[in-house]
Structures are given as C-alpha cells and as structure tokens.
## 1
Amino acid sequence: MPVLAQLQHRPASPQLYSAGRMKELDSSIKLGKILGIPIGVHYSWIFVFVLFIFLLARQYSQSHLGWDAPQIWSTALVTTVLFFLSVVAHELSHSLLAVRKGIPVIGITLFVFGGVSQLSHEARRPMTEFLIAVVGPLTSILLAVVFGGLKFVLSPGNPQWEDVLLNPGRTSLEVISLHLAWINFSLGLFNLLPGFPLDGGRVLRAAVWGLSGSYWRGTQVAARAGQFLGGLMILGGLGLGWLYFGASFQGIWFALIGLFLFSAATASYRQERNRESMRVFRVADAFTTDWSSLPSETALGSPLVSHGLAGPEAVIGVLADNRIQGVVTRQNLALIPAGSSPFTTLGQVMVPLASLPSVGPSEGIYDALERMETEGLTRLAVVSDGRLLGFLNKEEVLRFMARRRRTSV
Ligand SMILES: [Zn+2]
C-alpha cells in the first residue's frame, strides 16, 4: 500500500488568481501566449518541476512495476509536464472567463506553489466573481474525469486502482493517466476550500457579497476564513505531520502552503481595508485645478505658451467659444516638425477634449487610480457635462491616499 498512501498524501497546490500585478512574480521567464494570454514561469517553479520528477521517479522505482530506468524517468518526466499543463489549463479557464467578462488579464505565471492568473482588476459583480472562481476547480475536476476515463479504457475491469501501480507489467500510459486523474481531482477539491485567496474563498466572498450587497463584508469573511485555513494548515502540517509521518517532506510542504495562504489572505484583507477606507473619497477630492488656459488662436511661438507649460501640470487648456475645447502638452509640441510655421496656433495642434482619457468628478478615487495603473496612465482629465474641470494626477492621488491613511490609522 505505500504507493497509494503516497498518492493520497501528495501535497496539494493552490491555484490562484489575483487582481493587480503580483510584484514578487515579476521576475519570471516568458514562455509565450496561449489564446492571447501570456504564460510565464517564475524561477521558483524550476525547483518544484525538478523535485516533482525526482519524487515520481522514486515512487515508480519503489513500486513493483518492473520498469527499467529509462521507462521510470521518461514516465516521471511526462507525468510532471502533463501535471503542469493541467495547472495551466486550470489558470487558463480563469483567465479566459475573465476576458469574456470584460476584465483584462495580465498573464498566467507558474510558481513554486502552483499557478496564478493575474487579472487587471477584481470582478465588479458577485456573479462574475463566482463564475471566474468556480471555473478553475471545475476544469481540474473535468480533467480528472478525462484522465480517469482514459485509465478505465486502458484497463477496464480492474477497479483496484492501487493494483495498476503495484502490479508488474502495467504500462506507462496507465500509470500516467491514473496519476493525473488523482492530481487533478485533489487540485480541484483543494482549491474549493472556502478560504481566500483560494478559489473556494472567492466563491465564499461572492456568496456573502451577493447576499449582503457588501463587497467589503464578503472580503472580510473570506479573508478571515483564509487566515484560519492557512493557520490550520501550518499547525496540521507541522503538528499532525510530525505525529503520524515524522518530520516528513509532505508535512513541511503542507505547512509552507499554509503559510503562503495565511500571508496572502492577510495582505488581501489589508488591501481591501485600504480600499474601503478610501471609498468615501471621490475624484473631486483630489484633482488639481492648477493649470492655465489660452485662446485657441494663440501662436505656438508666444511667450504665453512657454509660460503656461512651465506650470506644475505642464498643460494648457485651449479656449474657443468660451469653452475648453482641448489641451496642449509638452509632448504635443515635441511632435510638431521643427520647420513648421511660428504662426501655427494652439487650436491647430491641440488634442480634443473628447479624445482625452477622462473621469467624472463623482467617481471613486480608488477606481480611478486602478484604471490609471491598468492603462499605464499618469493623468486623467476630469470632465463634467463636457467641461474640463481639471486633472487627476496619479502621483498626487497616491500622496493624497498616503496622507488620509496616516490620519485615519
Ligand atoms: Zn483556481
């Protein structure tokens, strides 16, 4: 029975998706794109990939399969590659559904504990959150059914799964399909545990959010559950692991995953608490009106233009018919050919107001910041009823939030 026991105690991995860029995964190797989603591996993943091959090879050589060394190693390699492709499939299902729901995806990264889909922002509705979260574990369970079915086709009439591994003469294909059925099944099940940031935690958040109408309430419940679950895994991995298996690799691994979940749940809790404390602030609280305007017929060579661009926002509003029609920035002027007429006017080179990325004064300041980060913008025009009110500057928003946080803590 040692093989089945090892199979059952194989450490599970969290498959996550996160909103925003996970800075610690930035140093990853880009592999390419699948269905338009960039796929990369973090350096820590290489360690776990090699470790997996060794653990599987050891398992195959300790059971009574009667395989020679090349068969042992090639089967271990193929199983490992298929396992990580299964993880990619799990993440891809999250990402593709997110794209369908209008949430841009930064990419998928494999790392030491599994995989992460990085979405540009959180879902805006509980149902969207629920669907994006639940599709991952369902994909894993579907893969388990496919591999289990393949194993059944290969050796029907053999309900004793452990026999497949223990009996001599079993083929690599049988062992691979059985292994992958198990791994995908435990991946799907583990990720359904109801603690943030696991998929099950997101399902829990969506449920509480949907029922209470409060995103913050949902996050609180799911993040606290995630901390509890992580803590339980740390204790379980170290304590029970020690009691029953000695200081086993599995126990330590389990505890490390628990530690990762605990810290991720804590970080999410803090981030959402910040967002919540910023919820009362609007764009109107932080935008700047520190800019000047000039009539559209002003020539570019006029000293008024260079004076206007020397202001803190380095932007000039272009006035015509008593209304700001567009803006001119230093970047606009830099694009004008050197030999052009000194009589070219602001009106001829301005960027029309309608084509500027803009935001309304009553929109939430955190949402505006999130948008600037996603779209790589440093500034948004604040526009109300077609009138330019001012500019929301990213640096200024960050300073504003830091000040408020200091005074509110
Ligand atoms: Zn997932």
## 2
Amino acid sequence: MHPLHDPSGLEALSQEIKSLALSLGFHQVGITSTDPLLDDGEHLKRWLSEGHAADMAYLHKSPEFRSDPKRRFPEAKSVICLALNYHQPEPDPPQTHQTGARKGKVARYAWGEDYHHIIEEKLCALIQEITARGGKCWKGYVDHGPLLERAFAQRAGLGFVGKNTNLITDDYGSWVFLAEVVTDLKLIADLPATGQCGTCRRCLDACPTGALPEAYRLDARKCISYLTIENKGPIPEDLVPNLEEWIFGCDICQTVCPFNNQAIPTDVPGLSYRKGAGARLSIDEIEAIPDNATFKARFKRSPLLRAKRTGLARNAAALQPTQEMKS
Ligand code: B12
Ligand code: SF4
Ligand code: SF4
C-alpha cells in the first residue's frame, strides 16, 4: 500500500504479518480486535452452568478471560487467528471387516503427530518475527489457552461456527486446527465470516449419543470425543452400545457435514497417518500393552497420549461387545 494511504503503516504491517504466517505454513490467517465477545461469553456461561462441560474443571477457571482477553492482558489490542488444515483421506476403510481383526477408529485429527508440537513451533517463529517488528506478544495459543478459539476465528473471518459447534472454513471445511497470537499492535481487523448452515441439520441427526441436543450446543457428558479422551471415569453404560467403533475421539458430526465434502488434503508431513497412530487401532494390541512405559513409547508424539494407557484400555474394552455383536 502507498504510504499516503497508510500513514501509520498499520495496513502494511498487518499484511506483512499475514504473509509471514502463510509462509510459515499456516493455511489461513485473519485479524480481530481484543474487544470482548459478548454473546459468546454469555453462551459459555450458560453452557458451564448447565453442566455441559462435564468434568473439564479447567473450563470453569476464569471463564471471563475466554471471551475477553484484555482482562488478562490489558495492553493487548489484536488477536491474530490462524488455521492449519489437517484433512487427509481415509487410508484403509475396509480393513476392519475384511481381515476380521478387531479395530477401533481414531479421529482424523489424531492420525499423525500431535498438532500441538507442530503448531507451537510455527507460533514461536511468528512471535519472533512480530517482536522483531516492535510488537509485544503474549504467549501463542493452541487449544490450551483461555480463549474461545472458534468464536475469535469467526470474528477474524476464518470461517463460521456451524450447528455442530465446529468452525467451518471455505477451503478446508471444519478440518482445521486453530491457534492465536495476542499482541499489543493495533492491527487492521478483518470482517467477520458470514457463512451459515441454513436449514441443514445433518450433524444433529447423525450424532449417535445425542450430544448435540440443539443447534450450536454440545453436551460433553454425552460426546464420544469427551468420553474417549478427556473423561477420567468409566463410559456410561447406556452410551457404550452407541460408540460406533470409535476408540479415540469421534468425527461423525464432521463427516456428515456437506461443507466437508470437498476439503483439500493437508500438506503438513507430520500430520500424515503414516507418522502416528493411523486411522484404526488394533484392540488386541491395546489390550496387550503391559505398562505405561510401553504405552508411551508406542504413542510417542501422538495425541493419543492424552487418554493415557488406562483410558485407551477402557475404550478398547467398551468396544468389544459392540464389535462382537456385529461379527
Ligand atoms: C473443551 C473442548 C472440547 C470438548 C467440548 C467441545 C465443545 N464443543 O465445546 C470436547 C472434548 C467434547 C471436544 C471435542 C472436539 N474438539 Co475440542 N476443544 C475444546 C476447547 C479446549 C474449548 C472449547 C470451548 O471453549 N467450549 C465451550 C463452548 C461453550 O464453546 P463452543 O462449543 O465453541 O460454543 C460456541 C458456539 O457454539 C456459540 N454458542 C453456544 N450456544 C449457542 C447458541 C446459539 C443460538 C448460537 C448462535 C451460538 C451458540 O457460543 C459458544 C462460544 O463461542 C477448544 C480449544 C479452545 N481453547 O477453544 C478445542 C477445540 C474446539 N476442539 C477442536 C477439535 C478438533 C475437536 C474435535 C473435532 C476432536 C475430535 N474429532 O474428537 C471434537 C469436536 C466435537 C464438537 N462437535 O465440538 C478444535 C476445533 C477446530 C474447529 N475447526 O472448530 C479446537 C478449537 C482445538 C484447536 N485448537 O484446534 N473439544
Ligand atoms: S463428536 Fe461425535 S459424539 Fe460428539 S457431538 Fe460430534 S457426533 Fe456427537
Ligand atoms: S452438518 Fe449441516 S447443520 Fe451441521 S454443521 Fe454442517 S452444515 Fe451445519
């Protein structure tokens, strides 16, 4: 941009930061202000008060920070929102029944290496570049930070929040991870995304456990993703028959989504199913893992470590009756 039209240089700096993010391998980048997300903050409060967070206690800690980053970082002015595509086609769909081997399905986000490692490296590099241009950055966030990542991404124009509560982008559907950098630079904000689900309700009808009781509302107590990853207790008996072979996570409300039909495959090598647990896991293998050290070595750098050996063994045990009934 010509300096006469951009006397403060902020338009040019915003564009430069976006180009840097793309050159580091992020697939999308958008900018929004640190103004509070008033409606989303209210939705979050209601979601927590109705028990929909199950026992994820960390979500109850200072929920107001999640919609209002300035409460934590008063000098913060902009949130740089980033997306990384993780889509790849299913490698071996007929394997389970063809070979007769007992297998459980792994959610697509967890087929390769843990995305936290991959994204954190890129965030560090981006923060270095911004700091070199005079911007102060607080920690880069991916997943664990106190931010409503999908709501900020929507306001930064990356995509819209669908009825299954996922952020849906134009090019990659909802198969994207989200990350953010919070900075004191007053960058030029993008326009919010305006897409919508329209009359579609496929995800609400397809969820096998009733974890989407209404549009835009997920009840983690019933969600297979929660029950097989975050949950520390047993899987409720009435939901066991509805696990639909998922041993880690669940993708049903995403695979039925029409916006996910044409998603472009990822170009991030570490996310390939060849670099990690893959799309299906042998139940016999999981049951035979003798101790934590073997489990950690088997799933080194994989998101499956999150469930721990006891969690994964619990999931494998829960799948057995369903699979035996089917065979
Ligand atoms: C806790 C958590 C979970 C929980 C709860 C999920 C949930 N929907 O909240 C569990 C363990 C179940 C989970 C599952 C999954 N997760 Co998760 N999870 C998170 C985490 C850490 C916090 C989410 C949160 O704050 N929830 C609180 C609720 C209130 O927020 P919300 O559901 O987004 O609801 C918003 C809107 O729906 C809206 N809203 C609510 N009510 C209403 C009502 C109306 C009428 C309207 C209009 C709007 C509205 O306001 C809310 C606030 O913005 C985020 C990372 C982060 N820090 O944001 C990752 C994150 C959301 N998860 C992610 C992923 C990949 C998954 C899974 C796909 C993994 C899998 N395959 O198993 C599933 C998807 C399940 C699903 N349909 O959401 C990605 C999502 C990427 C994307 N494209 O959206 C994130 C952003 C992590 C990341 N950094 O990439 N997750
Ligand atoms: S991830 Fe699976 S269980 Fe959870 S809401 Fe989506 S379809 Fe339902
Ligand atoms: S399946 Fe339909 S209702 Fe659900 S998120 Fe996709 S477009 Fe929206």
